[in-house]
Amino acid sequence: MTPRYSLSQIVLHWAVAMLIPIQYWTGGSIERTHHAVHMGLSPDPWDVIQHHVHNYAGVTIGALMLARLGLKLIHRGTVRHPAKSPVDRLARAMHFVFYAAVIAQAAMGLVASYLWFGIAPVHVLGSQVILALLALHITAAAWHTFVWRDDTVDRMVFPKRTLS
Ligand code: HEM
Ligand code: HEM
Hints:
Blueprint: H1 7-26, H2 28-38, H3 45-78, H4 86-114, H5 120-146, H6 152-155
Helix pairs in contact: 1-3, 2-3, 3-4, 4-5
The chain binds protoporphyrin IX containing FE (2 copies).
């Protein structure tokens, strides 16, 4: 069974998994807030709160994903994984795409909010790409658990002891 994750990697994985749904719940408030302002109206205070939550949770997600990437690179030097099967390689590629998509999404959100709103349509597209990746990711986790009956989900729940 490979690979094993440290406690910090597991905590960060589930923290991001809990924060991502908040982005889909709050994302729509931004368009409503901007629309009200452009119409010369006061935005709904609840939308303004959601807008702030979206920005801060999004920045947090980006920072946590960067921390995960850092831990992964550190552990890569200390843990040897045997040669991969095609399925393992596909999973690794999918995880890499996940890292790239989520970090890019947070970066695009920052740019849209503070530098150049022109990138916003790509951020909206990114949110759909992440949803599709998430659907594949959860399907794969369910497949491992219910069809192959292996311990893939366990390794994202129980930490490897020797890593910090
Ligand atoms: C990985 C983290 C993020 C995810 C998953 C995410 C997801 C979303 C979603 C689902 C929407 C609504 C799209 C729609 O209207 O259909 C949205 C809109 C938006 N988000 Fe994010 N977001 C993230 C991070 C951020 C960050 C860090 C910021 C800013 C600091 C940000 C700024 C915006 C802006 C300005 C919009 C409005 C775009 C528009 O209406 O055209 N997002 N985001
Ligand atoms: C929405 C947020 C999520 C993101 C961004 C995400 C991202 C990732 C990434 C990048 C990895 C690879 C870890 C690494 O090699 O460092 C991973 C592993 C894993 N994730 Fe998620 N994940 C999310 C949600 C979930 C959910 C909801 C589940 C539960 C069904 C799940 C189950 C797993 C499992 C079991 C692994 C270990 C896979 C393996 O070792 O081959 N993830 N996740």
